[in-house]
Amino acid sequence: MSPFLLTIANILALAWASVAFISLIRLFRQKHPPLPPGPTLIPLIGNLLIVPQKRLHLEYTEWAKTYGDVFRLKVMNNTIIVINTPTLVHKVFDLKSGSSSNRPKSIIAGMIAPNNVHMATGRYANDTWKSSRKAAAYALSPESVKTRSAYQYAEATQLMNDLLHSPELWFDHLRRYTLSFSLGIIYGQRGPTLQSPDIADFMNVHPRYVEALEMGTLPPVDLFPFLALVPKKWAKWKQTVEHIRHLQHSLYDRLLSNVEHRLAEEESERGALMEYAIHHASKLGINSREHLLYLGGVLLEGSESCSAALQNIVYAFVLHPYCQRKVQMEIDSVVGTDRTPTFDDIPKLKYMLAFIEECNRFRPIGPLGLPHEMTKDEVIDGYLYPKGAAVFMNIWGMGHDERYFDKPEEFIPDRFLENPYGIKNGITDDPARRLNMLFGAGKRVCPGIVLAKTSLELNVANLAWAFKFSPKVDSKTGQEILPSLDNYGDGVTAVPKPMPVTIAIRSEIHRDIIIGQLTEVQPILSMYEV
């Protein structure tokens, strides 16, 4: 045979071998799809050395620019997947909700609220969790929220009065408002002052609870489970966790006991969630008092997100006086100065609503949401989301994506007047984008969206109608003390930290209306007094 024919034969053989090899690779990848891309792994520890303990959302957003819309991290034998687009949120959490609705295991969360009774942090989306969601859906449905509008209006009136008389306590007044309103709809009793036992006790225990769940606060028992075997006398962190559980359990037990006592005494019911849950426990699938106890407690904890959003609004007013003035001019035009805003006014306040959306985009309270856990392997867009992986939705990154938002690091409310989602003109948006992304997705979406939205909108309208917000002036230097929207907690929720601001009533007319209105709503408030 000629050398030429041998060469042709060799080339053909090599070509067929190459085709076969490529086919085998494709077949292997189909059966064993890859994880999403991510930083280089170190044997045994993975990415342990580069995963930040604080402000994860900022680092995740930077990594998204390098690795794309989805990337993975490995910490020891744990897989973390971060998704950075609304479409992926929809594909992973909505379309695959049957396998993406668990929470990652948290030993500390389980020690504080065992047996999956905590609706937010409970690991399993099981029957216990479903019964809690069913009860919450009743209490927080649009119809139920509407029936409580008079009470919400009354509590919002007291908030204005509190700010009028002690503006220096503004940060805690906002917390009292959201807590008191939540206490009313959950337990049928309110907290009229900062010194009210239920208000004071919650403000004491909840920050401790949140801090205990933050990365780096306590020993990493989820990474090194053997630490949980250390006896309590040698593990101070166990004593801390036990104390938090005691404080939290005592508060929630007292609140539930008050409802049980009212029902036993056949007092007039107040339309509270816990009254409904007690009456319909069997139908709801609630089969223990512990379950009832944490059903109310978890919903009460949700009030902190509402107060944090209001606190961010105040800081935005101070830092952007031009925007504050535009909100006030719009409210003055729609509402006038002879009455306070009502729920009917809200749809007409287009710029104010854009201002709120920009605050939520610019500094979202939950920049990464709460992580989900995959309960089985799923392949999405060619990448493997393995069973046991913790999946984060990077809400911060989605709201600061330069592909869609013009100057994302600047505060520009007008972007939401030009486009309902605030994106650039002339581009094709992500088709799965929605405004309530910060409330989560899939089966774990927050059940209190309507309540949070109405509360935020009414109170922003009230605050802008009644007060002028400006920086505090240093008494020694005469310089303005500007707050910072970057001064927030390092946990999963980016709760702003208290900073001094100046709050002044806009006129004596506004003062008189607030005082008079508080007298008018007093009968409504008294219905929720113990």
Automatic annotation (TrEMBL):
GO terms for molecular function: heme binding; iron ion binding; monooxygenase activity; oxidoreductase activity, acting on paired donors, with incorporation or reduction of molecular oxygen. Keywords: Glycoprotein, Heme, Iron, Membrane, Metal-binding, Monooxygenase, Oxidoreductase, Transmembrane, Transmembrane helix. It is a single-pass membrane protein. The keyword Metal-binding applies. The keyword Metal-binding applies. Pathway: Secondary metabolite biosynthesis. Its cofactor is heme. Heme binds at C446. This is Cytochrome P450. PANTHER family: CYTOCHROME P450 MONOOXYGENASE ALNH-RELATED, P450, PUTATIVE (EUROFUNG)-RELATED-RELATED. Belongs to the cytochrome P450 family. Its main location: membrane. Pfam families: p450. GO terms for cellular component: membrane. It is found in: Membrane.
